[in-house]
Structure formats: C-alpha cells, structure tokens
Design brief:
The chain is α/β, with parallel strands linked by helices. It folds into two domains: about 130 residues, Ribosomal protein L30/S12 (60s Ribosomal Protein L30, Chain: A), CATH 3.30.1330; about 140 residues, Alpha/beta knot (3-Layer(aba) Sandwich), CATH 3.40.1280.10. Helix content is about 30%, strand content about 20%. The protein is built from nine helices and twelve strands. Strands 1-4-3-5-2 form a five-stranded mixed sheet, with helices on both faces. The termini are far apart.
Length: about 290
C-alpha cells in the first residue's frame, strides 16, 4: 500500500462504503462511522482517500491544523490518527520527511493535497493537517485539575490547556454550555497540549463536585475572600474559572476558598487566560522549587 496518494480526491459513496465493509468485516454499514470506515479500509490495504468536510461539532473526527499540533498528535495519540494531509511544499522539509517515513509502518496514510488543506484550514500558512478520531478520557480522581464553567471562546480554552500542561496540571473539566474541545481552533490554540491532556464535561457543578469530593476548591472571583498570595495550597486542588464575560456567579463564593487576583483599578478584570496562567504558576511553585 502506498503511503502517499496525490491528485484528485475520491468521494466515498454509501454504496462504495457498504461494499468495502462487506469485503472487510461483513458488518452492517449502519454500525460504523465514517472514521471507522476509513480506518478499516486502510488496515485492509485499500489505497483510498476520504473527502473530509469542514468541521462540525457532531462529527466523529476533527483536525489538528498546522505542523506542530499535527506532530504532537502523531507522537501522543497515534492510535487516533485517521489520515495526514500534507502541502506539496512541505514534503521536502525535515518534519515532512519524518512523517512520510513514519507513515510506512502505520495504518494511516499521508496524502499530498494543497486544495484539501486550503478548504479545511482558515489560515493560509497551514501546510499540514492531522485528521483524528475523537476520543474520551476519564479524569484522574486524585489529580489536581482545572474547572472551566461555561467557557465560550475556543482560543481561550486552547491557551488554558497549553498553560495547564506547562505547569503540570493535565486534567480539565468543563461545565456547559461551552465551546467544543475538539473544535480545530481549540486544538490549534493548545499547540499540541490537547493531545497530552485529559478533559471531560460535567452537566453541572453538583455533578463535578460529587465526582471529586476530596478536592480543595479555589474559585477565582473579583469578590474572592482571600488574595492569591495568601491562599492556602492543599493538594489535590481544583482551580475554578468562569465565563469570559460573566465570570462565576455569586454562589461560588461559598465553594471552597474563593480567591481574587489583585490588579490595578485601571482595568475591571483580567482575561481568563491570563488569570488561569497566573493561578497555575502560583500553585505550581512548590513543585518547581522541589
């Protein structure tokens, strides 16, 4: 099976997919998603290209847009990779050659297709896209985590993921309504951190609190009871941040030890990504000093 396929894309019609599945697994097409089909066909040696569509939240797959996020996907979630799309100008690069070499011994293929990349990426400087099947991870019960309550901005969530990984907190909980963590904009903003983290959604705060009864809770609020520098650090901890526009509602003032990050009165508040970064650095100091 060739690792590279150039030229026009082949649309996978329902009839073609049904035929492929009968040949490969003798299972009914209705039991499989599009990513299942492509993976089965690739494992069976079928040199086939799927026409990947612009991302939708209901899709069973998503995209890592850019060279670094795609490389991190290949290194840390290789079992989820469905396909890699590469721009012709990227083939001769060191990373491009490394990926092509890696693709010879894995069930996914590299496809050279500038048009597909232009169609899927809103940015012109994108030369590599990793297509991957969505996955789910349970958060570790005894590990510290961050809880985001109704985050609305994809870039903010991705940036917070990156900061979390940098300061040694690998578990992220989210309460909806919220941005989709598999949105390619989240993946790109996280710059690869997305694939080293565990994240999951809880329907409400009560469900989250029931799951982590042993955690010491630190909601960050403008009306916090203690200053960040005076907060008592106890592990495992949960750092809680609210929506970008509204923050946390008043009920969180009675949850754990509410914290305020002091700043000059020339601004009304800090961006949630800045607040999260400051808080994560403060709570990670002990680990770095050790």
């Amino acid at each position: 099976m060739s690792a590279i396929k150039c030229g026009s894309l082949l649309e996978l019609s329902d009839a073609y997919i049904r035929y492929a599945l009968v040949e490969i697994s003798s299972l009914c097409y209705d039991r499989w998603t599009k990513s299942d089909v492509c993976r089965k066909m690739s494992l069976a040696g079928w040199d086939t290209v799927a026409v990947w569509k612009t991302y939708r939240q209901g899709s069973d797959y998503s995209y890592a847009l850019g060279a670094f996020p795609t490389w991190e996907l290949l290194q840390h979630r290789p079992e989820q990779v469905l396909e890699v799309l590469m721009h012709p100008s990227f083939v001769s690069s060191e990373t491009g050659q490394a990926i092509l070499e890696q693709s010879e011994n894995v069930p996914w293929q590299v496809h050279i297709d500038a048009k597909a990349i232009a169609r899927l990426s809103p940015k012109e400087n994108c030369y590599l896209i990793g297509v991957f099947a969505k996955y789910s991870d349970a958060l570790e019960l005894n590990a510290s985590n961050v809880l985001l309550v109704q985050p609305a901005n994809a870039g903010n969530v991705g940036t917070i993921m990156r900061s979390m990984l940098g300061f040694g907190v690998n578990d992220l909980a989210i309460i909806p309504p919220a941005v989709d963590c598999f949105d390619p904009r989240v993946v790109r903003a996280a710059m690869g951190a997305h694939f080293r983290m565990r994240f999951t959604t809880y329907p409400d705060y009560a469900a989250y609190a029931q799951h982590f009864p042993q955690h010491h809770l630190y909601p960050f609020m403008l009306q916090g009871a203690v200053r960040l520098q005076d907060a008592t650090l106890t592990q495992p901890f949960s750092l809680i941040f609210g929506n970008e526009s509204t923050g946390l509602d008043a009920s969180y003032a009675h949850v754990g030890q509410s914290v305020v990050i002091e700043h000059a009165n020339t601004i009304d508040s800090l961006n949630v990504t800045i607040a999260a970064g400051i808080a994560l650095h403060h709570f990670a100091r002990a680990a770095f000093e050790a």
